[in-house]
Structure prediction request, 66 residues.
Amino acid sequence: GSAVFHAGTSLRDGRVVTAGGRVLGVTATGADLAQARERAYTAVERIRFAGMQFRRDIGYRALGRV
Prediction:
């Protein structure tokens, strides 16, 4: 499974809006690191907002060592 945590957000007119900085953290679990990483990025694909940026290298080095 996966979970999304928000931090740099505010509530405006009943909607969650970005308030600057790092606004979300996405985490996931899996049978191994590769599966957890895949699930996390699958969750990220479902998130969209103006100016959204995300890292594409999470777990890259660790997967090279497994």
